[in-house]
Backbone:
């Protein structure tokens, strides 16, 4: 039976070192050699380890560590690792520059704890003669039953480094992460690297042409990660105006932008000209030379995105070949920076739209609070979840929550269109079910073959829930299109989901469409209503019903005296999944309503004397409320005209309601007619519509809302 261990039982160290054996000269350099043999081989002269003719140059090495991060085995026999003294029993961090020890130690312990590998970190190793070797370092957990780590080291040959750097830099669309990856890759040519971006690039704005007389730079990245002296610029800080102008000399040229090199410390201090700029730009006393390489986007004319700085000590002057390598790497990766800029711009636009739709305030009759959290920090995670609450002109309040399918700018644009259309229709007096019918038609039109699908985006299946709160009757009228049920907690609790009939989402196929229904329920003062999107309650470990039940239990813990915004944040932090796949949106509404003494309602028959009776009833109440005589006169005229019009053009019993609001009086007259009152444009002898002209002149706003039995004409009079 073959005793060779299977690949699954081999440790990462054995696998890496086994791969080395094919290229090692002789048989003594295999991974199975003793520690003494390995240490001796590390100390052999460079010439003794030259590769055999015809073999490729070896650039791969491996080091095995225990849980205390001490070296237990190593295979660094390749010539490129000559002078790197990896001694068994010594800490691995002895191979590192002092300023990298905290960061690398943190990475090593993180892999020990989680088992997740850390791949392709650009790192420097110290040689015995004081020089340094740049490697790509990967950290792997040892295979069971062994404990510890395996660190693989790849010496960064020029072409390999350029390829690896470009690959690593293009893995993120975040502007900060992209700049950090570029700075990390440039560390192969220096001791400290920094990326300074044009402020417009950092914020995602459009950058065109060459910089003019002034340029504003912001530090986007800085490596290595260490404690810097006071006054030195770190990521997120703007460069002083003088420093920005000096660095701009590297990119403001008549010809193509080239690297600018300041060769020694004396020249640096002379160019900067002041101790303040030296403290801001020079990373330490040992820094003696700097290469400034512009980040240029090809075009006509070229677009400059910023400057990359590479700093070195005095004993390592820049060579021409190194400057060419620097320029090649920066040139090959500048487009990644521009892609991140474009992504940042889209992200900023989507978030601005999201914030624009968030509720501002609840008003006098309702208190609202909302929380929105995107799935990820970038715009790929910003989706079409939206909430809105706004007062309607007739004194009611609308609460709307929706979830548009997809993420990014397309979903956000559809979200904005649906939100604004819902607000306009509700303000025009349409009921929630009628608004959903219009939104359903809008989604279908948006996703026809010419406009929606041709653009590569579909909003079919988006959901929406609309609730309208009447502060006089203390009732809520609610309609839903495929959305999860709201949670209602009456005064005293407990909370539970509202029993809403399930309907398909917006834009469903014609065969699946059913008339939307309005569900009305009582919401006494002190009630708490929670509207949300599925990202708050969806968890792979739970069913959706269990997620809704958890939300109801959490809402039950909200005390009537708790601040609503703080309660909303607490609910989201307690319920939102740790690894979110969707946006999280929550809208809390606490019902307040009008006091009983601030409203009055009368039912009158539609007779000729109805206007006179209404004036008498309203006049008595206005005197009781101690309303000014001037305001009383205006209100009585408005009530007289509205009741007279209802008797003349509508019929059936009339309902007259008067509401004392915080800013004025709201007069409402309901009838059974279905005609829409309109302002007439007739002549002096045309009596049609003249009553509405009187109402229009005496009120600040007036309008119509439709009911199941007819309509209500309302008018607002300022006190």
Residues:
């Amino acid at each position: 039976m073959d005793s060779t261990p299977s690949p699954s039982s081999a440790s990462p160290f054995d696998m890496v070192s086994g791969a080395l054996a094919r290229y090692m000269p002789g048989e003594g350099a295999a991974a199975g050699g003793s520690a003494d043999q390995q240490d001796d081989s590390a100390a052999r002269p460079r010439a003794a380890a030259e590769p055999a003719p015809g073999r490729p140059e070896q650039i791969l090495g491996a080091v095995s560590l225990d849980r205390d991060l001490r070296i237990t085995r190593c295979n660094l026999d390749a010539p490129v690792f000559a002078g790197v003294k990896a001694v068994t029993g010594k800490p691995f961090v002895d191979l590192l520059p002092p300023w990298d020890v905290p960061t690398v130690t943190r990475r090593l312990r993180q892999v020990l704890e989680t088992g997740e590998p850390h791949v392709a970190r650009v790192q420097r190793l110290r040689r015995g003669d004081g020089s340094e070797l740049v490697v790509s370092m990967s950290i792997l957990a040892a295979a069971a039953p062994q404990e510890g780590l395996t660190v693989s080291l790849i010496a960064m040959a020029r072409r390999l480094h350029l390829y690896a750097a470009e690959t690593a830099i293009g893995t993120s669309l975040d502007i900060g992460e992209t700049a950090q990856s570029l700075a990390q890759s440039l560390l192969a040519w220096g001791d400290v690297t920094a990326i300074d971006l044009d402020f417009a690039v950092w914020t995602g704005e459009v950058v065109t042409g060459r910089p003019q007389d002034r340029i504003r730079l912001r530090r986007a990245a800085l490596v290595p990660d260490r404690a810097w002296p006071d006054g030195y610029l770190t990521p997120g800080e703007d460069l002083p105006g003088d420093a920005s102008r000096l660095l701009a000399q590297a990119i403001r040229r008549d010809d193509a932008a080239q690297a600018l090199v300041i060769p020694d410390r004396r020249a640096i201090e002379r160019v900067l000209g002041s101790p303040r700029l030296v403290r801001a730009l020079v990373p330490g006393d040992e820094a003696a030379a700097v290469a400034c390489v512009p980040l240029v986007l090809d075009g006509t004319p070229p677009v400059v995105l910023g400057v990359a700085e590479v700093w070195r000590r005095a004993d390592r002057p820049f060579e021409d070949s190194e400057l060419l390598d620097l320029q090649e790497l920066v040139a090959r990766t500048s487009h990644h920076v521009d892609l991140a800029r474009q992504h940042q711009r889209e992200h900023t636009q989507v978030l601005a739209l999201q914030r624009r739709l968030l509720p501002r305030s609840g008003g006098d009759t309702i208190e609202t609070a909302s929380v929105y959290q995107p799935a990820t920090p970038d715009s790929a995670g910003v989706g079409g979840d939206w909430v809105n609450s706004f007062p309607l002109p007739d004194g009611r309040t609308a609460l709307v929550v929706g979830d548009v399918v997809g993420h990014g700018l397309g979903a956000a644009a559809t979200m904005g269109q649906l939100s604004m259309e819902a607000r306009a229709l509700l303000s025009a007096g349409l009921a929630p079910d009628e608004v959903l019918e219009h939104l359903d038609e809008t989604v279908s039109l948006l996703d026809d073959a010419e406009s929606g699908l041709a653009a590569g985006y579909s909003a079919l299946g988006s959901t929406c829930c609309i609730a309208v709160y009447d502060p006089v009757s203390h009732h809520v009228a609610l309609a839903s299109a495929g959305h999860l049920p709201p949670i209602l907690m009456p005064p005293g609790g407990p909370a539970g989901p509202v029993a809403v009939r399930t309907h398909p989402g917006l834009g469903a196929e014609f065969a699946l469409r059913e008339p939307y229904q309005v569900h009305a329920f009582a919401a006494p003062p002190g009630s708490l209503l929670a509207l949300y999107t599925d990202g708050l309650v969806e968890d792979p470990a739970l069913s959706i019903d269990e997620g809704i039940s958890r939300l109801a239990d959490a809402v039950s813990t909200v005390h009537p005296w708790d601040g609503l915004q703080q309660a909303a944040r607490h609910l989201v932090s307690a319920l939102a999944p740790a690894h979110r796949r969707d946006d999280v949106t929550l809208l809390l509404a606490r019902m307040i309503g009008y006091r009983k003494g601030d409203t009055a309602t009368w039912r009158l028959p539609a007779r000729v004397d109805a206007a006179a009776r209404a004036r008498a009833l309203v006049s008595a109440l206005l005197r009781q409320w101690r309303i000014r005589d001037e305001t009383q006169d205006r209100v009585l005229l408005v009530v007289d005209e509205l009741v007279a019009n209802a008797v003349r053009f509508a019929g059936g019993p009339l309902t007259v309601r008067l509401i004392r609001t915080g800013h004025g009086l709201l007069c409402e007259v309901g009838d059974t007619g279905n005609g829409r009152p309109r302002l007439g444009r007739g002549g002096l002898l045309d009596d049609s519509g003249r009553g509405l002209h009187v109402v229009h002149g005496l009120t600040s706003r007036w309008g119509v809302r439709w009911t199941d039995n007819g309509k209500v004409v309302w008018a607002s009079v300022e006190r």
